[in-house]
Amino acid sequence: MEKTIYGFVFRHSLPQQIFLLALTVASFPVLYVSLELPKQIINDAISGSGFPRSLLGLELGQIEYLMVLSFAFLGLVLLNGAFKFTINSGKGRLGERLLRRLRYDLYSRLLRFPLPVFKRMGQGEIIPMVTQEVEPLGGFMGDALAQPVYQLGILVTIGAFMLIQEPILGLAALALYPFQMYAIPKLQRRVTALAKQRVQHVRRLSDRIGESISTIEAVHADDGSNRLRADIASRLGGIYDIRYEIFRRKFFIKFLNNFLAQLTPFFFYSIGGYLIIEGRLSFGAMVAVLAAYKDMSAPWKELLAYYQQQADARIKYDQVVQQFDPPGMIDEALQVEEAEALPEIGPASRLGFENAAYAEDEISQPVRSATLSLGLDEHVAIVGPSGGGKEELGLLAARLATVTGGRAHLDGTALAELPQAVFGRQAAYVGPHASLFNASVRENLLFGLRHRPLRPADAGPEDAARRAARAAEARRSGNSDADFGADWVDYEAAGAAPGREMARRMVEVLTAVGLDDDLYTLGLRGVLDPDAHAGLAERVLEARAALRSRLDAPGAAAPIEPFDTGAYNVNATLAENLLFGAPIGPAFEVGNLAGHPFVRGVLEEAGLLDRLEGIGLQVAKIMVELFADIDPGHELFQQFSFIDADDLPDFRAIAARADRLGLEGLEAEERERLLGLPFLLIPERHRLGLIDDGIRADLLKARRLFRERLPEADRPSVEFFDADRYAAQASLQDNILFGRIRHGEAHGAARMSALLGEVVDEVGIREAVMEAGLAFEVGIGGSRLTQTQRQKLAFARALLKRPALLVVNMATAGVERVARQMLFLAARTAMEGRGIVWVLESPELAESFSRTVVVEDGRTVEDGTYGELSAAGGSLARLLRQS
Amino acid sequence: MALNEEVEALRAIPLFQRIEASKLRLLAFTSERVRFQPGDLVVREGDIGDAAYIVLEGAAEVLVETPQGPLKVAEVGRNDIVGEIAILIDEPRTATVRTTEAMTALRISKELFFRLVAEFPQMAVEIMRELAQRLDRTTHDLREARAQLAAG
């Protein structure tokens, strides 16, 4: 990367900068004439004489002459404006392109950092550099050449004018500029140094804040918050000191500048006045010089501002670029460029290390001397004490680290010289912590297959044109023009055709690593678009029918109470029983029902309104009694109460008033609040005995009325339960169940899952359900999955691309025992006849491998079969004893 | 009203006998009512217990694993409590309880029970009193058993 900001600017925009400069210079004469013309108009056209005059062969009277000059003036103003607009928007565009290029370059370099850099450099330091810190550079880079030349040009012009008008006064006016030019940069330099410190301090501050967030558990667990507060306070103190110092110095510079600017008029008045009194200078000349001097201050200020900006920009650029140039960066050609033909890795390939050493820095050298030759049809276990270099050997084998001594090669070619694509596409790596993206399971799996755009996105001609334009603009800023929206998936590597076949292949791999049950459960909870999955809705309805016939079978203890148009569902809320459907949007949400005029009308007509208000009053009294002594913040409240802790006093008051005045004596608003309570009641769960048979019968009447009378406008706000229709808003599971799980049925949940599984298999949609699970969003870093699930997903990603070499590095350390066995089996079976290098967390796991290598103290000390080595009484035998 | 029925069942149990009615109502309201089919396992010997059950209706048998197979040691019925030790200490279940007919029970989870005890110290005192009485009885029984052995 260019060492200085000017280097960067000129390298990437010299022709454009020169064009802008030329445009600026070209605008000077126009500017000059537009300043000159008013004098002509006043002196010549208005107060002049000798009309008519001939202009370009035309005879013009005074009025016509005035008009011609005036329109010429107007034309010049417009021309001047056009120049300014073109120059400024050109500068803006140039600056933005350079900024885009700079950010892209920085990010692109970030992707080429050697891995150990990330141990030293925090996210909090790096991210602001690419995002905020370079932001002001954009404006400066656009101005880099044109601005100083423009302002200096004005300054020189005015200076020359003054010298010509009156040499002595001109000299006086200019006398202090050399001093300013010397002193101000000197003062400025100190400010710049401080600004540099400030940037570093702020960067460290943001890193500390990031660290506080990532260690927040320990902070709470160890009561460490005040220590962190003290740390941040002292850092903020440091920043305060620097900033205050910068302010003081900046204002001192300003003061000096202003003072010097005022000093010049002092010369004018004293020397100029003396000369006028002496009769050696005309009054008019002094006024002209004074006016000209006033015009000088604007460009001078601009020039100083430019100088300050330039100093700032240089520092920012230096500091950022330094950080983005760590030693050992991956060669751009090996990562970014697409090679014509990549060397093939196959079972016959050999991965070799001879006296390979790897040092992270001067102090730590985890691998001292590893010698090893692996055929990529072998399954090799690497064992050793932790910290003995086995993990780093794993990194070397996956080409994630580069040897710092000795040789590491694939079929004779040094690993460091191979493009990243060779291993990236033909080998796979699973490390101790799965690197998951905040996206769906599907996206996470496919990441291993997306290396370059392979098929253009399906798009109309208009869209294609837009994409082409965007790509062209990207190229102008040196950005990647690869279309992110294209299809990047290398289906061939996965051995599956696009579409359903690929989905099936993903399910297959996930099943192999033991994620099938999880995927099935996630799929059941998922909401599926029935239009996108042809035929699925019908089969879900078949499953629903199959489930229903099982539930209706005599003698069966049904864990589910199905929805039935003619029956009150005692395992559903009263609101659900009334709507007999699910609300879409807020209109019929349970909290809004009591105030909904249509709902009230229906209840009134069914004769329920008063009775439900009465039940509401009873619920309120019970809640007030039960929860009276409980602390409002208590979990019991959140879990069991119908009434928020905050509202409890209100309901206590309402209940008290109702005791005195009766229900009829309450305000309409109070009655409405009471009416809201029974909507939440589930008879089987709450067992308050308030919803008796009479209420149930009348509610069924209200249900019918609700459905018949629902105004057309409110139709989209509710999706009615319909035994013959797929509910697009509901999860797959809810669609199959079409009912509510019975409360208080021992082992009910297990029985329900078993039943669900039976019907899912009966209609053959298990696979479709699992495919729906592929859409599950895993959360930031996979946080919505367990540690074991995350590692399983990482293995699935590795196996999906059918690599020629699989490197596993301590990847099952945090995984449950059963899952670990499953992962071993899955990986070993899938990689039959291809290469595995498996760095193991404990030595006895090596037993099933064809070859075992022991790494100790950075050296490969033993190499052979598990049986031989464990019997030989050497390092492996010792490790086995210790574990 | 169903809740009252449950409160009565709770009151019949010595462990809860002296606890205020309103607290028992809260305990009943926040607990789950569970129905078992005949032959269902309520608790299984060796499992870690997470709840106690108060039988509201129906009956069950208490079985202990022996080398000769399961041995029936007791029967439980209406207003009996099952598995209360497990909600006080982390011990595996000492016996299996299997229903002999359809049974309905109130399930008091360990978590909920502790939350209520933490909220109402009076409950803790009553429970201590009950446990102390049990200990006293056991000690008394032990002394008698020893005396019998010595005499024996």
Question: How are the SSEs ordered, and which strands pair?
Answer:
The complex is a heterodimer of chains A (883) and B (152).
Chain A: H1 5-46, E1 53-55, E2 58-60, H2 62-110, H3 117-120, H4 123-133, H5 135-143, H6 146-165, H7 167-214, H8 216-221, H9 225-278, H10 283-323, H11 332-335, E3 350-358, E4 367-375, E5 379-383, H12 390-397, E6 405-410, E7 413-414, H13 420-426, E8 427-430, H14 441-446, E9 450-455, H15 461-476, E10 487-489, H16 491-494, H17 500-512, H18 516-525, H19 536-552, E11 560-562, H20 574-579, E12 581-583, H21 597-605, H22 609-627, H23 635-640, H24 648-661, H25 668-676, H26 683-686, H27 693-709, E13 718-720, H28 732-737, E14 739-741, H29 748-762, H30 766-773, H31 787-800, E15 805-809, H32 817-830, E16 835-839, E17 851-856, E18 859-864, H33 866-872, H34 875-882
Parallel strand pairs in A: 5-16, 5-17, 8-15, 15-16
Antiparallel strand pairs in A: 1-2, 3-4, 3-6, 6-7, 9-10, 11-14, 12-13, 17-18
Helix pairs in contact in A: 1-2, 1-6, 2-5, 4-7, 6-7, 6-10, 7-9, 7-10, 9-10, 17-31, 18-30, 19-29, 21-27, 22-24, 22-25, 31-32, 33-34
Chain B: H1 2-11, H2 21-30, E1 32-36, E2 41-43, E3 51-57, E4 60-66, E5 69-76, E6 81-82, H3 84-88, E7 96-99, E8 103-109, H4 110-119, H5 121-151
Antiparallel strand pairs in B: 1-8, 2-7, 3-6, 3-8, 4-5, 4-7
Helix pairs in contact in B: 1-2, 4-5
Describe this structure in words.
The complex is a heterodimer of chains A (883) and B (152). Chain A is α/β, with parallel strands linked by helices. Chain A folds into 4 domains: 5-323, ABC transporter type 1, transmembrane domain (ABC transporter transmembrane region fold, Up-down Bundle); 376-404 and 416-446 and 780-882, Rossmann fold, CATH 3.40.50.300; 527-563 and 723-774, no CATH class; 572-720, no CATH class. Helix content of chain A is 59%, strand content 10%. Chain A is built from 34 helices and 18 strands. In chain A, helix 1 (5-46) runs antiparallel to helix 2 and helix 22 (609-627) crosses helix 25 (668-676). The longest helix of chain A is centred in the first third of the chain and has 54 residues, at 225-278. Chain A is extended and about 125 Å long. The two termini of chain A are 50 Å apart. Chain B is an alpha+beta fold and 152 residues long. Chain B has a single domain (2-151), classed as Jelly Rolls, CATH 2.60.120.10. Chain B is 43% helix and 28% strand. In chain B, strand 4 and strand 5 (69-76) form a beta hairpin. In chain B, helix 1 (2-11) packs across helix 2 (21-30) and helix 4 packs across helix 5 (121-151). The longest helix of chain B has 31 residues, at 121-151. Classes of the chains: A alpha/beta (883), B alpha+beta (152). The interface between A and B is medium-sized, with 22 and 21 residues.
